[in-house]
Structures
1.
Amino acid sequence: MRRLIAFEMLTLDGCYAGTDGDLGWARRRERDAEWDAYVQGNADSGGELVFGRVTYQMMASWWPTPEAAQHEPLLAERMNTRPKFVCSRTLHEATWNNTTLLRGEAAPRLQALKREPGTNLVILGSGRLVSALAQAGLIDEYQLVINPVALGQRGRPLFGALDRGMDLRLTQSRRFGNGNMLLCYEPRERAAGP
């Protein structure tokens, strides 16, 4: 069975975006060669990408452009060629290269995808989708990059909509020179493994 991994950039107070959708806080860090190498390695690690509609439209408006290819050529190449899924109730077609549209409720569609053979499924951003799938117990690993920024009431908390808590186990951590902190967690009920 494939694993469903959520990769999220978060603020120190657990927000995935500003209340107005702003993500500028995630790009305010100084350049860090170690962080850049990590991002590139993550892009090279394989897997099929999963997005919610809002993140998909943001990514699809950037990565296929000549500017993306000029500024981050290897990352742009990976993003454009890797298989992708977009979960949406309102989108009518997926126009970005190698993208399959998953219409309707995301949880049953992704649960079915997890049972199919193939590589891991990696959700990038897509805070509302991650929150819904966390509620359904479908996420196997959370890779959370904590940025040293707090948004307070101006932010959308990733786990704010959960109606029950989650018990997680830390499996990995890493500090970067730009102040970012990677924290990887697995749900306790899955952490013990076979």
Note: The helical segments are 33-44, 53-62, 66-71, 73-81, 106-115, 127-135, 188-191.
2.
Amino acid sequence: MRYQISGKQIDIGDALQTHVKEELGSAVQKYAERPTDAQVIFSKSGHEYVCEATVHLSTGLTAAAKAHATEIYAAFDNCCEKMEKQLRRYKRRLKDHHKERAEPVELLGASSYVLQSQGEAEGEEPETLQPMIIAEMQTKIASLSVGEAVMQMELSGAPVLVFKKEGAAGVNVVYRREDGNIGWIDPGS
């Protein structure tokens, strides 16, 4: 597994990098057969250290975890525990489905945009109805089953996941509802 360990405006020493590789490697190897790469980013927020970890699996799914603590090693250990818990749930769900994915997830290219919020005071009309694009990026849309999309959304900690439903044309969306349940938008039905 390839590791990319970095710090935002803080120095990451060799001892911490070794600790991250050993601990994260052993946690991920327990539950994922062929992880491809891991990205771990440390930063400081006020008096606390923040650790964000993302692990890409060979199936095409991605697991992400984030934790914070007053010490940098404790922040990583908390993050590693969250990652291990997610991967344990992922593996349990794979066993529950009684099927193995034979091929990696198919990814389709798409454009992703960040739009500027209007920032207008309530009750005022905006000058124009066209939003201003402040960032443009390329993203990938995975071809997944609905169950895999829900699993991917939970693994990544995202509130929404856009995906192409396997065996169907068009784009689907799964999202976390305010009542805690998962919603699924299928424009094909």
Note: The chain has a mean pLDDT of 80.
3.
Amino acid sequence: MADKKAILYRMILPDHTCPFGVRAKAILEEAGYEVDDRILSSRADTDAFKAEHGVETTPQVFIDGERIGGSDDLERYLAA
């Protein structure tokens, strides 16, 4: 079986770490995924990412090139 890999985009600003991003990373690691943890470290980075991907929120998880969504979406995906 191939290694399970996921890409996680999450926001970590100097004054704020997104708790949903922390949760999504923990969920992925518990499920055995190798996480490519991509930090959005400024409001501008975060806004640009959301505009590029047409999403309203971070974190966003991608598995096998498919956007899964945020931490709630990830839980549903892994439970399916």
Note: The domain at 5-79 is CATH 3.40.30.10 (Glutaredoxin).
4.
Amino acid sequence: MFEMKEEYLTGITEVDDQHRELFRIAKEAYELLNQDFIADKYDHIVAIIEELRNYTKKHFADEEAYMESIGYKRMFTQKMEHNQFIEKLEEINLDDIDNNQVESLLKILEFLDYWLGHHILENDILIGK
């Protein structure tokens, strides 16, 4: 389901490598959802959220530094979307996850699917042009 395909490539090696890592994290969440042998997935879900929080902050900072270095005209819009992504991750209620693990994973996956599909294809691709 979560696979870095050619259409997601920006042509900027560092950005593309970091996007691959985001796809890897999303794939890990998807695989956890489908793992029937782990009854209590709470600790795994929290670990994925923490990994996303930490990794996206680094990725966004690197991407924004690159955009600034090339004088990218749409940088303000990108920064706003990056901040919204981080805020969304920060708003996740860990008690809700504990009580509704499958539903929580599905929400995280929907969010990542939208983000990876739309943000990269509609916004990040333009950085490389």
Note: The mean pLDDT is 94.
